[in-house]
Amino acid sequence: MTKMDAPSPTKPAYIDLDAPEAGNGKAVEVGPGVHWLRMPLFGGDFVINCWALEDSDEWAIVDTGLKSQQCEAAWAIAAEELLDSRRIGRVFATHMHPDHAGMAGWLTRLHGGTLHMTRLEYLTFLMFEAGGEAAVQEEREFHRKGGMPEDWFADFRARSANFANVISEVPRAYRPMQDGDRIAIGGREWQVVVGHGHSPEHACLWNRQDRLLISGDQILPEISSNVSVVAHEPDGDPLSDWITSLARIKAVVSDDVLVLPAHGQPFHGLHNRIDALLAGHERKLDRLAGALGAAPRPATDFYSVLFRNVEDSFWSRSLALGEALSHLACLRQRGIAVSGEDTEGVIRWAKA
């Protein structure tokens, strides 16, 4: 997600429920045996929703927050306030981003539980944990080839280097999930519904019986998750994957669910929200297609076409580059754009 994403013009139908305070360990029950916790992230209003599911005499946790002293303290309080000293037997991570899986290793080691992720998310999680100087240099080169001028690197922070600082050690064993799996938790069945684009193999969990969908970052109520081309897959087309995934989720999951997102309030109106997300990206694609010309230009030249504002920091410019590249790659897939390297290796884009 980025600050650059514009809010949806119409808000979803939120349920009349006060959000739990982030970090105080207390929870709000949103469905039978399903409790809503919020964990602090980077300070201010940045929080993540975590879901505690009653699982017989244990608990299953979906998403964890990132590794921090604040989060450790919050989970310690939750152990007394909500969990009632019952063991966390299973930790489910919707995907490998640190705010979702950063505390997974810490929780599984503390409770002797097991980690559950899709295979691509787990392997990518391990890859980012490994990091290293080679990964840092590859990221820098990726941004340079994307069109970033040298003076934008003054506050360069490699994603791979930062990643390792906000995750606890990744367990070396896990339980794989895949699309269509049906998982019993507390006598209820949750179906795994996989999406792509925001991350490699993002798992949503759908409970038909109680009409609940834990959507992670795949479907958020008021912003679109960041969908970026990334340094380790520079020729990827994540936006086409994202669009296909959303259309499929709409076809598979019924509209009567209460959506439990990773950020923001639980809401009704899944299908309308998916339609709004798809329409928002199509508008961006239309604007971008109109801005392409015969003269090839780097992706950074199209920031003003796609975003209202990009802050003067490497992190914001990096997120914008990933998003710009994903939209350009989608247009290339549709036969609207072409790309090629100039003499300095910078990738430039033009109308097909």
CATH fold name: Metallo-beta-lactamase, Chain A
Find the CATH superfamily.
Ribonuclease Z/Hydroxyacylglutathione hydrolase-like
Dominant shape:
globular
Over all CA atoms, what is the radius of gyration?
A: 20 Å
**Taking strands numbered 1, 2, ... along the chain, how are they ordered across the largest sheet?**
2-3-4-5-6-7-8
The CATH class designation is Alpha Beta
Helix/sheet category? alpha+beta
The proportion of strand residues reads 15-25%
Share of residues in helices = 25-40%
Any idea how many domains? 1
- The number of helical elements comes to 10
| Biggest sheet statistics | 7 strands, mixed
Provide the CATH architecture.
4-Layer Sandwich
- Strand segment count: 17
| Low-confidence parts | 1-8
Would you list the SSEs in sequence order as H and E? Answer: EEEEEHEHHEHHHEEEEEHEEHEHHEE
Average pLDDT, to the nearest integer? 94
In whole angstroms, how far apart are the ends?
30 Å
Tell me what you see in this structure.
By secondary structure, the chain is α+β, with helices and mostly antiparallel strands. It has a single domain (13-291), classed as Metallo-beta-lactamase, Chain A, CATH 3.60.15.10. It has ten helices and 17 strands. It has helices at residues 69-81, 98-101, 104-111, 119-130, 133-146, 159-165, 238-252, 270-291, 303-306, 314-333; strands at residues 13-14, 28-31, 34-43, 46-55, 58-62, 88-92, 114-118, 175-177, 182-185, 188-195, 202-207, 212-216, 258-261, 267-268, 297-298, 337-341, 347-351. It has a seven-stranded mixed β-sheet. Strands 9-10-11-12-13 form a five-stranded mixed β-sheet. α7 (238-252) runs antiparallel to α8 (270-291) and α8 packs across α10 (314-333). Residues 1-8 have low confidence and may be disordered.
